[in-house]
Amino acid sequence: MSRTTRTPARSALLERYDDAAAASAAKVISRYSTSFGAAARLLDAPTRRGIRSIYALVRVADELVDGTAEDAGLSRAELHALLDELEAETETAMARGFSTNLVVHAFADTAAASGIDETLTRPFFASMRRDLDPSPIRADEVGPYIHGSAEVVGLMCLAVFLAEEAAASRSGSAPGSAPGSAPAGASGPAAAAAPDAARRERLEVGATHLGAAFQKINFLRDLETDWRTLGRNYFPWCDPEAFTESDKARILDDIDHDLDLAGRSIPELPRRARGAVLAAHGLFAGLAARCRATPADRLMSTRIRVPDAAKLAIVARSMIAAAGQGGGTR
Hints:
Layout: H1 12-32, H2 35-40, H3 45-65, H4 68-71, H5 76-96, H6 102-114, H7 118-131, H8 139-171, H9 196-221, H10 223-229, H11 245-265, H12 271-293, H13 308-325
Helix pairs in contact: 1-3, 1-6, 3-6, 3-7, 3-8, 5-6, 5-7, 6-8, 7-8, 8-9, 9-11, 9-12, 11-12, 12-13
């Protein structure tokens, strides 16, 4: 059982520990991610802190199942035990509000502030556990795997965005219309505030599709490493050793569909988060476009990336676009 609200009064000692935990999470994202890290830097400080804490826990679990812990000499049984311990520590920290593991503590602090609970963390750890299973992933397992490894992460990020929006609304610290307002440009009766539940449902659809798109793009970029180093193939309907243009097109068409659905909800995001999400969407759309322009056989030997100059241009365009949308929520 997680705490759904932050403890009202936090001592100076606990706040210092919270800050140290948040700094640890920030160090993880700065070390491991350029695209996600660049987008996160566009967020206001409280939101950025929450997003970094989510990324850090996800990254630690990824490193555990993707070879780093194995390189330290751990057996398969020890990897399973460590993952079980990490999940148990996460749930315990969410319940009690403290962990001696700084990354877990940062995540638990964010979970308490934003209402993240076990309905999101348990599918995540289930997907991580599947990565420790050496048997080939079946077609019917791909959807649940993507849900646990990526879609729930999108939902966690959305929970942070909406919690910070609610906090800003209560404090009156940011201009803008009340949460739940209709999208910019609406007029007449349709301009009346949409029910919070309906808006949240639309945003959740967008968050899950964005998370799925990011994951599928990374599957495609890591096709060679996943197959030849880890023995995994997240596209079980195709043969990585005979990867074709048709296979590539099928995957990218699916990714583009996810990106399209995700993009539709971005104008309804809290204004403070909109630019960062637009940037992340743009960066991964750029990766998808570069994958489409790369011959299928090269995807098995080259990890596609967006050059730094192109990343900066995407980020700049995203901030301009977000500012141009105006109105909307806080």
